[in-house]
Write a structure and sequence with these properties.
single chain; 228 residues; mainly beta; Porin; 2 domains; 8-stranded antiparallel barrel
Length: 228
Amino acid sequence: MNMSVRRLYGLLALIIALYPKNAAAQDYNTSSYDYKPISLGIAISPNVSWLRYGDFDVQSNTPKIGFNYGLVADFAFSENYYFSSGLFIDNLRAQSETYMNIDDVQQASQTNNYKLQYATIPLGVKLKSTQRYYRSYYGQFGFTLGVKLSAKQEIMDSNRVIVQEYDNLKGGADIFRLGLQIGGGVEWLLDHNLRFMTGLTFNNGFTQVIKQGEANNSFVAFNLGILF
């Protein structure tokens, strides 16, 4: 066997030895893709929010639609375990119908429309499945820490006529909002460094946000985001 044939066999052997490793790195459907230790992205989340009054006398309580937006940050412990955080602006709305005293005998109903805005930091754990067929599934659980940016109240009488507006509920809304959050969804692989996130979260506030009636706030959000 001459020298050129030996060199050809050696080159083929080298290609065969290196091929499985490179192919695995390029194949989106395998479990050996290169996960990123840090992923940053942006997200927007339409939400449905409502108030919870407990034993307070409320005639009706109507959920309202709002939205959240902000930065997502995932820090990997391993391929399947992440610490998830970020910074969000939560715009939460709610409506309730309560009673107001006209005099010592008569009462009339009033409708309260609330618009609350918080700067929120989520702190949680994200559990992610191994990637298959361009997607991976995740579930997450944790807490959210919110600081009030603004709080507005609109009061209407029984004829739906605005009788009073408060642009800033300084003494009527608490400055902090703490919540317990759970959710899950799917991350879709668009490219090696680009993923599209879809998911659903439930956030249960366990501190009061409105002092009148000691109302807590909860919401459900549909999450859409791009991770880089």
